[in-house]
Amino acid sequence: MRHINSYTTILATAVLLTACASIYETGSDRSADGTLAPVQAANGPGDDLAPVPTADGLYFTSNRDQGAGELDRMFFLPTGAARAALLRLPNGEIRSGALLLRGTEGRVLFTQCYRDDAIGDCDLVEGRIGSDPAVIEDVRLLPEGLNDMEWDHHPAMSGDGSPGSVLVFASERFGGEGGSDLWMSLRSEDGWGTPVNLGAAINTDGNEISPWLSPDGKELYFSSDLHPGRGGFDIYRARLPEGRTPASGAWSNPEPLGAPVNSDEDDLFFSGPLAADTVYFASSREGGMGGYDLYMCVRKTSIAPPPPPPPPPPPVEKEKPLVLRVRAINAYTMEAVDAVLSVTPADSDLMLAEGMTMVELPLTVGSRYNITAMRAGYMNAVEEYYAGGDAAVTRKARDEGDRMVIEHAVVMMPTAEEERKIYSFTVEFDFNLSNIRPEEEKKLDSAAVLLGKFPQSTVVVSGHTDSVGTVSYNIKLGYRRATEVSEYVETWLRRRSVRLVNDMEIRTYGESEPVAPNRTEEGRQRNRRVEIAIVRNR
To answer: Is the dihedral of CA 168, 171, 174, 176 positive or negative?
Structure first.
């Protein structure tokens, strides 16, 4: 037998003051007299509870996921709508539920938990429905005494809250008969009176929750998990004798409602007077969409049963995760290289993956990545990788069963072969920058003039840094500096119609090959450089 307090839906007991009601006498099976159907547009995969029908639609409480996990919140389903809207109210990020309408002026009572000004864990609050039925305004806490340091929830009321009205609610406060009991407060000219326990006729050693009072206060409906019944929680009705008032506490012995309202599972949140043609309630019976679902019974002789629910949408195939697999290979042999690989976003130094020889990371379509590969005996490699949009990714990805994989190889150039330099130039840079200083452009112009005489040669452009910053960052900075120099020289040659036979080789050494100590600013300045080597081919 489940205890309703074990659910996150502890708040979500329905209270209703409009004409929505039971059509069955207590105890007997009257299934042939009415039609039972789920409220399809309101139900979802979570727990859906607390139906409160109005002329505009249906209010209810649900713990369906709205991006903040399973949190009790109130929803509004407009009449004829296919989807419910989240009810907007101050402090909407905290648990809220169990709405009660008060009269015709839009005043409401409900429960909120863990407020900044809380008296207990869960307290009764009041507010007002604005011009938009999906908005509650002017929310404020009801006074201490009515609220206790324990859980107070599930308000029900006869009247509109004016003097003479009766408020019944569920509470776990000290002085009760069991776990959760029903308590009553009378409204006078001075406000709500001190709550009193409804006594052993109503309350048991178990749990009594989700009360509903008829407008004249003569009938009390509630749920209990210990009074004799069929399931875990059943719905019961108690009456006052003729001439007695709620203040007398002279309730009759509770009687369970018959089928189809009560079932072998939990049945809660009954709403409506005995004479009406429709009743709403929540149940965990088999065949629902979630843990608890909303149901309605309609008297066959009065109102036609609702149309059958639309067929469920076809199941959505779960999208397989997309993975980028990066390897390092030898430029000449195409064999794997045991290089240190690291991958970051193109616009930051956040490390996404790091490892030897091969790394894998989740790939986001449309994103760009910087890939760095380092290995002794090879030139450090820095690449910007872009997989492309949806079409390109679909074309490149290979299905590996539980995921889609795109492979990318970083080509690493061995440095063991001898190089014969014809000439070399050095260009210095400012701290942490890769743009070429105006006074250094003359050196690059001279290098370009020399290249015009040796178009068959190989040009090696090597980027270097000082020791300020991380090794990974300096490798990338050296690469940016070398790229900036190569683009400047290529532009100079293109304007003069000079074409090199071989593409320029861009290398980056970061801080690994200083030409001066990094202890002084003068030494660090000399190390912030790009070397251009014009090498004669063999």
So the answer is: positive
Residue 496 tokens, joined: 């003069």
pLDDT by residue (tens digit) across 114-151? Answer: 888 999 889 999 999 888 888 999 999 999 989 998 88
Closest by alpha carbon to 48, among 102, 8, 2, 89? 8
Residue linked to tokens 């009743």: 279
Nearest in space to 508 (alpha carbons), one of 444, 470, 440, 461: 461
Summarize pLDDT for 405-432 with one digit per residue, the tens. 999 999 887 765 444 456 778 999 999 9
Q: Cα 518 from chain centroid? A: 49
Half-sphere exposure of 90 (CA within 13 A, CB side): 13
Beta strands in 304-397 (DSSP E): 322-330, 340-345, 353-356, 358-362, 368-374, 381-386
Please list, in sequence order, all residues whose beta carbon lies within 8 angstroms of the beta carbon of residue 318, skipping any fewer than 6 positions away: none
Q: Is 537 helix (H, G, I), strand (E, B) or coil?
A: coil
**Burial of 447 from C-beta contacts in 10 A (0-12 / 13-18 / 19+):** buried
Token pair 């820095």 is at which residue?
Answer: 382
Helix (H) or strand (E) holding 452: helix 441-453
Burial of 135 (0-12, 13-18, 19+ CB in 10 A): middle
Averaged over 215-244, what is the pLDDT?
87
pLDDT digits (tens, 9 = 90+) for 175-188: 888 889 999 999 89
**Cα-trace Rg, the chain:** 38
How far, in Å, CA of 63 to CA of 72, rounded? Answer: 4
Q: How far is CA 431 from the centre of its chain?
A: 43
Strands (E) in 335-456, as ranges, are 340-345, 353-356, 358-362, 368-374, 381-386, 398-399, 404-412, 420-428
pLDDT at position 257:
84
Consecutive H or E run containing 445: helix 441-453
| Strand order, beta sheet including 358-362 | 358-362, 322-330, 404-412, 398-399
